[in-house]
Amino acid sequence: MPHLLRREEALDTTQLDDLAEQPQRAARLVLAAAAAGEVEAQALLGQILLEGYGIQADPTLALTWFDIAAERGHAMACNMAGRCHEHGWGCAADPTRAADYYRRAADLGLDWGMYNLANLLATGRGVVQDHTTAYRLYRQAAELGHAKSMNLTGRCLEDGCGVPRDLAAAHAWYARSAEAGDFRGQFSHAAVLLAERQWDAARHWLSLALELGHLKFIETALASLQAAALPPIADIVEAYAQRRDELRAGPR
Fold first, then answer.
1. Fewer CB in 10 Å around end: N or C, the chain?
2. Is the pLDDT confidence value at 12 over 60?
3. CB atoms closer than 10 angstroms to residue 136
4. How does pLDDT run across 147-193, given as a tens digit for each residue?
5. Which residues touch 148 (CB under 8 Å, ≥6 apart)?
């Protein structure tokens, strides 16, 4: 079974390492533990039902188990119930209910809950738009080591969104996000390096972001790089274009 670590916004299943090649048996054991009242197993059962790992996928039942664990104070279950309500997994999409769950996860100290609630606040989905609180939550999650929040903390500081503008602090957060492995943070950090004409350093982070980024990111990043028209990184721009085309074509 893949490791669904919290850094990947899913539940920790490292206790099932020895069952990695036996997903159906793992699912049965999790189901039995959940039925016996083990809260971690209840939250984990929601995850495997959502993904259909070793068991038939059932998003509606997944949400039920997330709710059960959430009511018992399981932070990641609160977050995952929020994800279900935000995206309409097993229920009608409802960003207001999603915000409620994310707030509960955030109050329990979960970085992903802080990040997801901040995203809703920043965009005004399901809640009143509040850039100041969004920044505070991004910053709080970033201080806990959440790589995506590090990048968005930097973005808020660069744009002066919810916080006074501070370019030096923004650039420092981009660097931290890049080092922590977020591909958007890597691209943000590279953009700073490009502006400083640190070509080799920028190429390093652009290459890493290219390896990790999904299609939507690659398309946006490519458009930005093409608009910059910087000859020293022409080969990197070409690599982004090639990767975009590969992702659009899909698996062969």
1. C
2. no
3. 18
4. 999 999 999 999 999 999 999 999 999 999 999 999 999 999 999 99
5. 115, 177, 182, 184, 185
CB atoms within 10 A of CB 16: 21
The sign of the torsion formed by the CA atoms of 146, 152, 158, 164 equals: negative
* Strand residue runs (E) in the chain: none
Cβ contacts of 196 within 8 Å, gap of 6 or more: none
- Give the angle 98-10-44 at the CA atoms, nearest 5°: 95
How confident is the model over 18-73, as pLDDT tens digits? 556 788 888 889 999 999 999 999 999 999 999 998 889 999 999 999 999 999 99
